[in-house]
């Protein structure tokens, strides 16, 4: 059997049957051409991966989220975030943007050589804040890519006084029955609630001391439910409470 070799410029190929004369069979290897784009496909893939994957960051944070608790009347201690330049070149912090006016960040050193560490100290003013509170600070560096870091500050701030529910209501088709609001004092020392007032004269109020200085019940009765109205009820403590303490409840005829 004769073999006939057919070829074209390029690399690679495959064997295919071909005729090499009467009654004979031959095997031909055809080499297909390879374009410059195919030759460089490996380089192109590497470049694509480089730009699609996130760049390694130079700044390593010991932690990016801190939670603290302050009892009623106490101030929050400063939040301390420690960071390190784990890269091979100096890195500078160009901005520290607080997400709330209650935060005051201070950076102890703005430029770090490779291997050096720094701190971000944040004062958190809790005035007017109660419950579970979260605030953020955005740190920006002079790194060429992925140069922002977000720090989260959480605070657990017990409410000096709790009112539940904050709103009681009646519908016109209901009866004018008495409804109650539960009031609890969470201070370390008791604080008496001496009175409760209403900005409308369509509701009767009765303040009951379940545990003087600690626990009260406020009974509210509408005089009529024919006309829709909303009333604001204000509690009056015997001693001043911290700023931001809720002292209001609501009664509504719908």
Automatic annotation (TrEMBL):
Pfam families: DUF1573. This is DUF1573 domain-containing protein.
